[in-house]
Amino acid sequence: MMEPQNEPQLPPVSPNGLYFNSSAVSLVILAVLETEQPIKIPPHQLVSFLDTYLLSLHPRFSSVIVTGRDGEKRWKRVGVNLKDHIKTAVFPQGKSPEYYEGCFNDYLSEISAEQLPETQPLWEIHLVKYPTLNAAGNVIFKIHHAIGDGYSLMAALLSCFKRSDDPSLPLTLPNDGNVVGAGKRAAVSRVLAAVLSTASDLWLNFSKTRFLEDDLSPIRSGDPTVGLRPISAATMTFSLDEIKQIKSQLGMTVNDVITGAVFLGTRLYMHAVDPGSDGADTTALVLLNTRMLRSYNSIEEMVKQETNSPWGNHFSFLHVTIPKLTTSTTATSNDSDDALEFVRAKRHSLAVPLTAKLLHLYRKLKGSEAAAGYVYRVMKSTSMLITNMIGPVEKMSMADHHIKGIYFLVSGNPQNVQTTIVSYMGELRVSVAAEKGFIDPNTFKSCVETAFRLIRKSACTASH
């Protein structure tokens, strides 16, 4: 869409927003909200809710991307017909929750592969008014990554939704469980480890875009069109208190424990599908928020010119090599000590901020499309994507509908499998989304759950 000649100068799409809305990469976030009660929001009430809360949050929810007179992509405010953005799933009537669970999964897979219309603001809300195994109803927010990253969108949810127990009180976030105390010797060790890891990570990042790719395996087909295909998903829930207990026993962080379970579960899945893939070189690409914050700021704070938590896409990525499976670390092993090697696969690295700066420099020298191609190559050369968000401690409600669970997925990424993690009401919800027909997400889920049990067992043994 071209900008009319008589239009005033429009705000530009951010560089990171361009990377995720280019000919190389187009990413969409699917946020799923599970309701406690059946969804019975009258159409006019939902329109009023979206108009009052969502459209007023940020101009990008009422803007489209146009090409400016200078050839740059920019945001243009347009009139929004909210009814065009509200979709209602239609399934056969009078069926069981098990039946509707299958319908819901097929529906989620279907909309994951559908492109958002470029002629209207890049978001939709889907209502699934049928009971599934986990919820009385489901609300799906489908939002293009160009509008904002997970941090921005979680901040939007916190601004739109209310506490179920007391709407007059703000939603709060869990205390940071990732800080691990250490003495001077450990601090020096961390500095040395950071220097070595930074050099290693920068080299791995460079090589993954030039000449190195992960081996083909049960989780990596190498097909360049994978980002255009539908995904299928499965989710699992872990107690945040239990994870914190494990991290205290091991002197690690919450992220170390849960990503360790994902890494070990990945290897267990690969072994189950093809034992010959145990030695495959496999890398996870971890997307990280580069804002130096431990909590979400208000939307009012995020849209200010000078703020440390701006709206938009502020991310970098880190390559993490997934440890290889040993003969003693299997789903039926009585000796699970090797499981802790997957938890210890954490990195003390400065590559995250440096990678973001180098990507910015690359864009300055080569242009936005070339930088988007670079991001695509970084993603395509790896086997899986991992990203996470912090959610509220208290139960939320949307238009008087209590939300019993939340999780999110990303579609359009050129990897066959992704894992997303979000905390909510004292639990971590881990989602596995995989290319439909290539990876069985339920088997993958079972392997991650087995991995968590092995790590929990090892942590108890190590603490005694």
From TrEMBL:
Entry annotated with the keyword Acyltransferase: yes
UniProt family annotation: In the N-terminal section; belongs to the long-chain O-acyltransferase family.
Pfam family, one: WS_DGAT_C
PANTHER family xref list: O-ACYLTRANSFERASE (WSD1-LIKE) FAMILY PROTEIN (PTHR31650), O-ACYLTRANSFERASE WSD1 C-TERMINAL DOMAIN-CONTAINING PROTEIN (PTHR31650:SF62)
Catalytic activity entry: a long chain fatty alcohol + a fatty acyl-CoA = a long-chain alcohol wax ester + CoA; an acyl-CoA + a 1,2-diacyl-sn-glycerol = a triacyl-sn-glycerol + CoA
Cellular component terms (Gene Ontology): endoplasmic reticulum membrane; plasma membrane
Domain O-acyltransferase WSD1-like N-terminal: 66-258
Gene Ontology biological process: triglyceride biosynthetic process
Pathway, per record: Glycerolipid metabolism; triacylglycerol biosynthesis; Lipid metabolism
Sorted UniProt keywords: Acyltransferase, Endoplasmic reticulum, Transferase
Localization: Cell membrane; Endoplasmic reticulum membrane
Membrane protein topology class: Single-pass membrane protein
Signal peptide: none
Name assigned to this protein: Diacylglycerol O-acyltransferase
Annotated O-acyltransferase WSD1 C-terminal domain residues: 311-455
GO terms of molecular function: diacylglycerol O-acyltransferase activity; long-chain-alcohol O-fatty-acyltransferase activity
